[in-house]
Structures
1.
Amino acid sequence: MKHTLNATFVGAITAVAVLGGAAQAADWRGWNIHADGYPNTVAMDKFAELLEEKTGGEIKLQMFHGGTLGSQPDAIEQVRLGGLEIGNFNLGPIGPIAAEANVVSLPFIFKDVPHMFRVLNGEGGAKIAEGMAAKGLVPLAWYDAGARSFYNGEKAINAPADVEGMKVRVMNNDLYSGMIAELGGNPSPMAFSEVYQSLKTGVVDGAENNWPSYESTGHFEVAGYYSLSQHLIIPECLCINTDVYNGLSDDMKAAVKEAAMESAALQQELWAAREASSREKVEAAGVMTNEIADKTPFQEAMAPVYEGYLEANPDLRPLVELIQATE
Ligand code: GTR
């Protein structure tokens, strides 16, 4: 497939991307927080490969993994402003920017991961995508990030009382700080890259994440109790700057979207395998895992978090109800 860039495309991206003179190729840069071999890293590399292939070499994407281009909140700003074109972002730190996207950060809103995907692939996902696009981030496809659970170095967590007084690292989002506060803990918002040292030196007592991130970061070495609260099921996006995307011709848009969808299919497949292998690895290293027999007290404690969100965003009540009503 051989295209030439159309005028709209060139006009729109001149301000935000480097155009390679004669060849008229667009050189994009992409951000990812994860290490080599992580499902998202492999899938983003695949996206870059497919993008080049499907656009006949007209769009080239250079991926920067491991958060080398900055923290996630900074990278989200960069993509919104067009300093970077592409990012694989967790919707958690996007929530404070796009209220629609923040709905996924309400604790226990999704029953499980398949429920999350049913919502994302329907009207709810369209509403979230629209809200994000208006803030500069078009989600091209959704990645799986499983469920997040609490971990710490001292004890198994079985009830909210076990979180009381505990200093828990959260991602930058007031909903998460509210969530920890409602459980009686002290929230500590902090960049992903700082969590290992903070756990090790006692700056925080615990944190929360999915199996693959708990394992790949080495957090399991310094916080050996993993309690299956599964309080958050947050999707991730393969996101592009809105102006860059809108400036593409229809053919180019289709090629970019197709590459993203194929990348997401690969990510979801790799994710399932990695969740299992990460769990095996940390348990073999001595991590104590516990199921939480009754999650109701955790869920009930979240009522003020929902109330706060709905008070701030009364127009998003239908979205919350739509998700809750989705089978
Ligand atoms: C991971 C997620 C990252 C980042 C990280 C965190 O699960 O994939 O994008 O959000 O959690 O806790 O900061």
2.
Amino acid sequence: MKLVLVLGDQLSLALSALQQADRARDVVVMAEVADEASYVPHHPKRIAFTFTAMRKFAGKLQAQGWKVAYTRLDDPQNTGSISGELMRRGSEYGAGAVISTQSGEWRLILALGELPLEVEQLRDTRFIASHQEFENWAKGRKELRMEWFYRDMRRKTGLLMDGDKPAEGKWNFDHDNRKKAPQSIDYEGPLQFAPDEEVLSLVEDRFGKNFGSLRPFWYATDAEQAQEQLRHWIRHALPFFGDYQDAMLNDNKFLYHSLISVSLNAGLLDPLDVCKQVEDAYRSGDVPINAAEGFIRQIIGWREYMRGIYFLEGPDYVSRNVLQHTRKLPGFFWGADTKMNCVSKTVAQTQSDAYAHHIQRLMVTGNFALLAGIDPAYVHEWYLAVYADAYEWVEAPNVIGMSQWADGGIVGSKPYVSSGAYIDRMSDYCKNCRYKVKQKTGEEACPFNVLYWDFLDRHRDRFAPNPRMSNMYRTWDRMDEAKRTTVLSDAKSWLNKLDAGDAV
Ligand code: FAD
Ligand code: DLZ
Ligand code: SF4
């Protein structure tokens, strides 16, 4: 007999390890362990989600006739790590071999490879592109642009294809998307599900001091609930998804976003099935092409591409720091006060829900961290800790690559930086801010305004030759010298205040 490892983000009946195993002979090993729950200070909601979903999935496997050796966090024999639990179960059942599906984080892949057991790490077939396929695609290319990869995934899956042509004649409908924040949103947000109180008590007891509110806990925690949320969102929000994908609102945390990443990344939903349901809604005339295409691109394009980059680049990817940024993460990332309303709102909703939507992650907290020159290792750790959907395979390329440009441009051909004007255009945050977005210098000026030019000036040698950034440098160079000097000195004093822990 063999052990069959099922990790907390592998909760899919179609998992390759389960497919390969013998239900009548093998034993499934699932374990709530301190190592996984504390390698970064996870948001309590994220831990509660994982344990609840794992317990329910174990019950489902047992109901289907699998023998499951399940370790709860408070079991006295719990060794505290996945490796330890495999060793313990190996002796208990007299098993020397393990069937597993490759983990989504290098640290676990490497740890399992070192075990004195025979560990098979199978391909994770829940993803559309295999590592080999991504490597083949990347080979010989000067630039790894997502858009080209995405078109191959459209052809491979047949999603939104009419024969060999993209539906409605275009691959990408983004020019119809990214509208400003609407006055009001007529979608009430994600469905709310009942928690497992026993898990909440355990998490409160062990991880209650971590950053983040455990209650109210409302996430979907099994495949049926995740499907219910998906169907609810397709019906009520998807038609507007594309239009307002990049909008941000003071009084609406979710806008038209799907909130499926937590379920999707844990295996409660299947990406291809999700995209097929979205395509069906488009084909039946309920959803416009810009919404359906925009959404499907996020899943079979960005999501698959990010995973491809993580595995292509190897375990050292997370420690890249091409711009040599060294600043510490300010306390307001962990909930301390800040006068910057956009940052304060994004962090507050991260704290309450372990969720922020893409543009908040990219253009508010990510943009701020990059402009302020924060060490990407701290930024990486923060994102991995605070979001319920964070696993290194998807978090690291988004943070190290897309958001912090710490990989030197593998993911993004130019850094995602902007002044306050972008945030003002896409949100209503600036109206409620103690800084003034229209003010370019002085005590009350929006910090993003001065930090933006300071960033460009500091990294001039690297970015000025980039044709996609030449406009920005031309604008900077056209500013009169006295103003440029004031901008740079204002940026310096603002950063000094930040470092000194003053109220910013
Ligand atoms: P929606 O806006 O409804 O989008 C639908 C789905 O598309 C998402 O559920 C997700 O599966 C996929 N998607 C969209 N953009 C991306 C992307 N850039 N990369 C991968 N998948 C994408 N996503 C994670 O799943 N885990 C992370 O740890 C994570 N960290 C991020 C860090 C930064 C700095 C940035 C800029 C983005 C990050 N993302 C991450 C991508 C994206 O922000 C989230 O997937 C999204 O906000 C999840 O919310 P949603 O389900 O409501 O998404
Ligand atoms: C995120 C997480 C947490 C909090 N706890 C566990 C756990 O106790 N046991 C487990 O098997 N998985 C857990 N996970 C998910 C893993 O961290 C995840 O499988 C790896 O990070 C690889 O993506
Ligand atoms: Fe953010 Fe600046 Fe707008 Fe304030 S003024 S909300 S700091 S962008």
